Amino acid sequence: MYDPKSMKAEEFISHEEIMETLEYAEANKNNIELIDSIIEKARQKKGLSHREASVLLVCEDEEKNNEIYALAKEIKQEFYGNRIVMFAPLYLSNYCVNGCVYCPYHMKNKHIARKKLTQEEIKKEVIALQDMGHKRLALETGEDPVNNPIEYVLESIKTIYGIKHKNGAIRRVNVNIAATTVENYKKLKEAGIGTYILFQETYHKESYERLHPTGPKSDYAYHTEAHDRAMTAGIDDVGFGVLFGLEKYKYEFAGLLMHAEHMEAVFGVGPHTISVPRIRHADDIDADSFKDGINDDIFAKIVACIRIAVPYTGMIVSTRESKACREKVLELGISQISGGSRTSVGGYAEPEPEDNKSEQFDVEDKRTLDEVVNWLMRRGHIPSFCTACYREGRTGDRFMSLCKSGQISNCCLPNALMTLDEYLEDYASEDTKKIGKELIAREIENIPKEKVKAIVKKHLYDIEDGQRDFRF
Asked: Does residue 392 carry a pLDDT above 80?
């Protein structure tokens, strides 16, 4: 039944193929000769199959695991350098008609505060986010055709792009909403979204149906095939991920990579981003009741193996994870993180009152954006607020071809430094600004082309002089 070119969910995510892959990996987890050959193939930086990567995931040899981690760091550095893209989620509404047993937005939850932002409230939230320094948002809503129709999402996107406050502007709006129709994806494309994001939650069909007992999300095939419809509609940047802890992590890992292989086989473009969230406590949800939770060490191994298997994709870790955990996985492949996040409907302009909470999950990393930016720079990373590729039309196959060839880095470092400098001038604390200016002075010397370096230096003076929004 397994066919990566099939448009049927149960054929491109084949349960039988996953089970055979897991058996193969288990049988070869100490096969040093095979592991060496897979690592050698991975050094070519063209990726691995789901079966090859699954062998590395379960490898028990400490020396080989150290090689895997070192290779993940090397690949991350080659494709993404030490840049870390910053973003924040914005929850528009938590009204939802689904019955997902791991999410407090499920329709049977009668005590969570149900909220939906008006366009005026959205303006206040966006201005608060702009005043932090954010340029990139990920919109989130529950699934409710009455309270959260596509028209509401489209109106909200228009509102967000239209807000200019001081030097602030949201330059890229990514959208994480429920699986929908080709027609609706076309509308999102016309609205100018960046990436369409949808998490699979779990690729195990039987578990998926048990975890989604009611509501439109209970249709496994419709949900799993959503990215295909989005691509067909012209949205050429899509992102996906699983919620680790709902099912055995080895199963989810194989399914995730098979999904990436399917996108490559059908559309010639893999996922723009892969997210790796873990289940967390939230309102009436007890994360400890899910028996397949994973510890930090396994989580780090998953991140490293995804980076090796899908070297070109952006990898996202959110404030679900603690500072210590984020610090570890940043080195192994993560290229995007959120900062100063709220998982409530609103909450940026004014904190939610304790007796009226609407959070989707508990935030582990509660630092402000400035604190996160400061921390990243102290660890040698370049916080980037760049949205240039999306705005210059470098999306889909155009982005992937540049990324796979390594040429994208000719744009990324200059853009990262210029957008970081905007942040430092407009929003940073004095300590963060001092560290950032020193970092920019060092990193500008790493720009390989002298002509580009000269242009960047000029634009940095222009930014200090009050000008904004330069990009390659």
From this structure: no
Per the CB < 8 A criterion, the answer to whether 35 and 55 are in contact is: yes
Number of H helices, E strands in the chain: 20, 11
Token pair for residue 110?
Answer: 């009668």
- How far apart, in whole angstroms, are the C-alpha atoms of residue 469 and residue 171? 10
The H or E element spanning position 238 is: strand 238-241
CA distance 130 to 17: 46
Q: And the tokens for 416?
A: 């990262």
Quick one: tokens of 88?
């924040």
Q: 37: part of which helix (H) or strand (E)?
A: helix 32-42
pLDDT band at 402 (very low <50, low <70, confident <90, very high): low
User: Which range (6-20, 64-78, 373-387, 398-412) has the least confidence?
Assistant: 398-412
Chain-centroid distance, C-alpha 445: 29
**How many angstroms separate the CA atoms of 281 and 296, rounded?**
16
Q: In this predicted structure, what is the pLDDT of residue 469?
A: 93
Q: How far apart are CA 142 and CA 177, in angstroms?
A: 7
pLDDT > 90 fraction of the chain, expressed in percent and rounded? 90
Could you count the other beta carbons within 10 Å of the beta carbon of residue 353? 8
Pairing between β-strand 83-93 and β-strand 136-141 as defined by DSSP bridges:
parallel
Judged by DSSP in three states, 449 sits in coil
- Give the three-class secondary structure for 196: strand
The stretch 118-140 carries a mean pLDDT of 98
| Rounded Cα gap, residues 296 and 301, in angstroms | 9
Least confident range from 187-191, 298-302, 388-392: namely 388-392
CA separation for the pair 461, 467 (Å, rounded)? 9
Contact 234, 267 (CB under 8 A): no
Beta-ladder partners of 382 = 83
pLDDT given at position 407: 61
Count other C-beta atoms under 10 Å from residue 444's C-beta.
18
- 284: number of Cβ within 10 Å: 13
Tokens of 28: 């070869």
Distance CA 377, CA 84 (A): 10
> How many angstroms separate the most distant Cα atoms in the chain?
63
The total number of residues shown for the chain amounts to 472
CB-CB neighbours of 248 under 10 Å: 17
**Cβ neighbours around 16 below 10 Å, total:** 10
Entry pTM: 0.95
CB atoms within 10 A of CB 280: 21
pLDDT score for 408: 60
